[in-house]
Specification:
The chain is of the alpha/beta class. It is built from nine helices and nine strands. A six-stranded parallel beta sheet has the order 3-2-1-7-8-9, sandwiched between helices. The protein has a three-stranded antiparallel beta sheet with strand order 5-4-6, with helices on one face. Strand 4 (129-136) and strand 5 form a beta hairpin. Helix 5 runs parallel beside helix 9 and helix 7 (199-211) runs parallel beside helix 8 (230-236). It starts with 9 loop residues before the first helix and ends with a helix. The structure holds ligand BV8 and zinc ion. The site of ligand BV8 has 38 residues, from helix 2 and strand 8. Ligand BV8 is lined by residues 28-30, 33-34, 39-42, 45, 52-53, 56, 110, 112, 128, 190-196, 219-221, 223-227, 244-247, 249, 263-264. Keywords: Metal-binding, Mitochondrion, NAD, Transferase, Zinc. Its cofactor is Zn(2+).
Length: 273
Amino acid sequence: MAKRVCLSDVKAFHEVFKKSKNIVVLTGAGVSAESGIPTFRGSGGFWRKYQATDLATPTAFKRDPSLVWEFYHYRREVVMAASPNKAHTALAEAERRLTAEGRQFNVVTQNVDGLHLKAGSSNVLELHGSLMKTRCLKCEDVRENRDSPICPALEGRGLPDVNSCSSSIPTEQLPRCQSGSCNGLLRPHVVWFGENLDSGVLAEAERLLSACDLCLVIGTSSVVYPAAAFAPSAAARGIPVAEFNIEESPTVHDLLSFYFKGPCGTTVPEALS
Ligand code: BV8
Ligand code: ZN
């Protein structure tokens, strides 16, 4: 059974942290929870009667693009109104400090909310894309889109309460491609369940994980693959892994060198100070 450490052992963590030259931080929805972004599996994980795994799929989009766009429109609006929390800012500050000391500090995030970038982190690998990007189904054009709402038909739509009924917006009124005269239907530029991650992003994640000498795992239930395999791959090389979570995530607990129980807005700034 892994050593169980809590905040009082932050001194032991600091000993390891200060000697590390190449740190990779894996983050999940829990790092944004204190910014008001619902996590996937917590109580806020439901939107209307759906779970993300019901809607974040190519099949759901094919079947009901209006419903899926309502879901993403709601999340875009929540994220655009959200601010980074103390965990995000502590990570951005650590990147600045360690880079100045010639050390590597990279964030590999499962999140699509852009809050690490908003906090000032620049070494951020977004494994699953971004809510603020769209991709055209017809011409594959990918671009940043921060329009609020993303299209007039979605104005005021996407309310999360379970009794809200679907708007059944005709596809011609859903977000359309602005590249030339394409006008193709747009989708969120995120990786859906059942879709492969971008091969370049995956290769970069694997490069970072194989080169690190310390791996932090912050705010993830570690159930979604391939991201869930990243920390175990580092541990398999004998690299110390530190988890920051409000609960013990079953997948990683056996390989942990450190486990800091509590809200990461508190535990991460203390560990990285
Ligand atoms: C792939 C973007 C190859 C979209 C996301 C059957 C058919 C098809 C595929 C599969 C299948 N079975 C398994 C798979 C593979 C599947 C998978 O892993 N499924 C899971 C559900 C079992 N993976 C995939 O499909 C991936 N692609 O494998 O390609 C392939 C191809 C075809 C067929 C087979 C394989 C693609 C996965 C990417 C999906 N896209 N996001 C969008 O966001 O809309 S995943 C999405 O969910 C997130 O990005 C994230 O990855 C995941 C949520 O996980 P977490 O981030 O961990 O969040 P969660 O809510 O679960 O946990 C929050 C944690 O924070 C908790 O531990 C909580 O305690 C903690 N916490 C809360 N508050 C705090 C806190 N901690 C600290 N402080 C706090 N304050
Ligand atoms: Zn197009």
